[in-house]
């Protein structure tokens, strides 16, 4: 990414998204454990926090925990009696996340549940899980549209559903990369959201320390 975008990202971070001890220790732990360094950036973590506050989220669902970095930002947006559930397929990632969340004092608010998201989500729906106010989709990219449709069944009017990595350095507008499974997966979601009767949606293109990507934001309509 060009220097000016990284420099401005650092400027925004300095103003709004400085990492405290718990967040920097989480980053250090993830590096030490050599798990993928694909957490959201500080500035995007802050964006998730502000969006969760905007909908006054009391119940948050995350699909794809990794080391718990985005979960710390989102968990901090919850009120005292708020709760968050984060789904993670890899037991190593889940263990690191639980440690990082505990260090942030969020162990009683944020539950990391191990398993395959496409198994857990239908079980939550079948067991009558109450709706979530904010849902962050950030796991494997191929089933993004399935994650969204299942998320809708765990939503109510006004629920905000956000999915990460829907621009992928602009790969989504490159015909030669249309068949790459991750690219096809995120495009399928964005295409569906453009005309989906249940939501009002748009994409925010993002640049900065994590280079060029984007978040798709969808708000569930009153009538669907
Ligand atoms: N939200 C995190 C980053 C998540 S990276 C953050 O910004 O801090 C994506 C995570 O999704 C990885 O930890 C990966 O193991 C997990 N994942 C991949 N496929 C999954 C699946 N089918 N079910 C649940 N989790 C999955
Ligand atoms: C990848 C996944 C992510 O969730 C992300 O934010 C960046 C990269 C990946 O699978 O490459
Ligand atoms: Mg991501």
End-to-end C-alpha gap? 40 Å
Bound molecules: S-adenosyl-L-homocysteine, 3,4-dihydroxybenzoic acid, magnesium ion
CATH H level: which superfamily? Answer: Vaccinia Virus protein VP39
Question: What is the CATH architecture assignment?
Answer: 3-Layer(aba) Sandwich
- CATH first level: Alpha Beta
Shape: globular
Given as residue ranges, the uncertain stretches (5+ residues, pLDDT < 50) are none
Cα-atom Rg, whole angstroms? 17 Å
Number of strands: 7
Number of structural domains: 1
Give the helices and strands, then pairings.
Layout: H1 3-16, H2 21-32, H3 42-54, E1 59-63, H4 69-75, E2 83-88, H5 91-103, E3 110-114, H6 117-126, E4 134-137, H7 144-152, E5 160-164, H8 181-194, E6 199-206, E7 213-220
Parallel strand pairs: 1-2, 1-4, 2-3, 4-5
Antiparallel strand pairs: 5-7, 6-7
Helix pairs in contact: 2-5, 3-4, 6-7
The structure holds S-adenosyl-L-homocysteine (SAH), 3,4-dihydroxybenzoic acid (DHB) and magnesium ion.
Report on this model:
The structure is a single chain. Helix 2 (21-32) runs antiparallel to helix 5, helix 3 packs parallel to helix 4 and helix 6 runs parallel beside helix 7 (144-152). The chain starts with a helix and ends with a strand. Strands 3-2-1-4-5-7-6 form a seven-stranded mixed beta sheet, with helices on both faces. The chain is globular, with a radius of gyration of 17 Å. Strand 6 (199-206) and strand 7 (213-220) form a beta hairpin. The protein is an alpha/beta fold. The chain has one domain (2-220): Vaccinia Virus protein VP39 (Rossmann fold, 3-Layer(aba) Sandwich). The protein is 41% helix and 18% strand. It has eight helices and seven strands; from the N terminus they run H-H-H-E-H-E-H-E-H-E-H-E-H-E-E. It binds S-adenosyl-L-homocysteine, 3,4-dihydroxybenzoic acid and magnesium ion. 3,4-dihydroxybenzoic acid (DHB) is lined by residues 38, 138, 164-165.
């Amino acid at each position: 990414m060009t220097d000016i975008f990284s420099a401005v990202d650092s400027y925004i971070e300095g103003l709004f998204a400085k990492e405290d001890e718990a967040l920097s220790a989480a980053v250090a732990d993830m590096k030490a454990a050599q798990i993928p360094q694909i957490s959201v950036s500080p500035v995007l973590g802050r964006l998730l926090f502000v969006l969760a506050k905007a909908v006054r989220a009391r119940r948050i669902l995350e699909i794809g925990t990794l080391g718990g970095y985005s979960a710390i930002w989102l968990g901090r947006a919850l009120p005292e009696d708020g709760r968050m559930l984060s789904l993670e397929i890899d037991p190593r990632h889940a263990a690191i996340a639980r440690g990082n969340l505990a260090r942030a004092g969020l162990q009683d608010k944020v539950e990391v549940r191990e398993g395959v998201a496409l198994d857990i989500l239908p079980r939550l729906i079948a067991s009558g899980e109450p709706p979530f106010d904010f849902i962050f989709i950030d796991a494997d990219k191929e089933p993004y549209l399935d994650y969204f449709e299942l998320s809708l069944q765990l939503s109510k009017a006004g629920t905000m559903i956000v999915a990460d990595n829907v621009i992928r350095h602009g790969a989504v507008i490159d015909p030669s990369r249309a068949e790459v499974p991750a690219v096809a997966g995120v495009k399928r979601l964005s295409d569906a959201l453009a005309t989906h009767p249940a939501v009002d949606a748009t994409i925010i293109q993002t640049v900065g320390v994590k280079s060029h990507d984007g978040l798709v934001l969808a708000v569930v309509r009153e009538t669907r």
